[in-house]
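note to self — DONT lose this again. spent like an hour looking for the file last time. sequence + predicted structure for the chain T wanted, 132 res
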Amino acid sequence: MVTYFKETFDSFSSRLILGLAIILIAGFQYMYWFGEGGYYDHLRLMQQIQQQSDSNRDLKERNRILGAEVYDLKNGAEAVEEHARLDLGLIKPNETFIQMSTLTPAQFKESNIPTGSTDGKYEEEEEGSNLP
């Protein structure tokens, strides 16, 4: 068997054809894996398509919610009243407005600490310190 291959590729033309075949196969393989529209390019595009379809799904849901809100605003007085009360703070005549905070006492204390104080204590200026 070895002698058959040795005799077959003994001539220059058969070696040239074998070399060209190897170069062509290697070139086609390179184009398949790394070329434009190749395997890795295809994987990247498929990933981008998946990300875009996820984004489209989220946007469709947001559009559905906004469409329902527009429908409510066009066809119902309750939705308009709700938006006026929540967004604009409007109240009806002879109505008492009570605003409740959802902060815990610890969060409330933390939010009222002046920005110049680092230890949580208030620093008061002495107004009469310049007097002799």
